[in-house]
Amino acid sequence: MGYLIHYSFHNVRIPASQVTAALAAIHHLYQPEMVERMGTATIYDHTTKTMKKCYRGGHLPPSGSFATLMDALQAWSLGSVQQSDGGIEIVEYRCDKAGNESVLFDAIAPFLDYSCNPRIDAFQDNNEHWRHVFMDGQHRQVPGKVIFADQYPELFDSLET
Asked: Does residue 104 surpass a pLDDT of 80?
């Protein structure tokens, strides 16, 4: 498995009417039972002297909650912009690999604007490709495949030599 991941976001928008609900869903990820079930990493707890599950990315601020959805997305290394109508669009990944972002994508999937056909293309440094697709309130990760023109010339207008 490689370590550098590049995400390309396509129409991943949360309408203004769903911003509060999406933020609540992200906060729900931090309930102890959710971290235990969904956590993708471990951290040493100096108080209990035990290892506890956590998320590799998306740490809660000291206040215990995120002030805005954009703050929550930024904690997961996702850049977003606020649209003129109050909606939020995720536009960039500001990290090389923070953790298992699928946990976050699962949480926000029910709140996306599906009329835009939202998707996220992912490319990894070991030539793996996949796509995060969102349909009917759910998130799926679909493996990808690179197709070269010399292997499937019928898919291309012409082959350059």
From this structure: yes
Q: Where are the beta strands (DSSP E) in the chain?
A: 5-10, 12-14, 41-45, 50-54, 78-82, 88-93, 119-124, 129-135, 138-143
- According to the model, what pLDDT value does residue 116 have? 92
- Rounded Cα distance between 141 and 105, Å, is 10
Listed in sequence order, the DSSP H helices in the chain are: 19-28, 32-38, 69-75, 102-108
The first and second tokens of residue 42, run together, are 């471990």
The confidence band for 55, taking pLDDT boundaries of 50, 70 and 90, is: confident
> Are 76 and 105 within 8 A, CB to CB?
no
Contact 149, 43 (CB under 8 A): no
Residue 152 has pLDDT above 80, yes or no: no
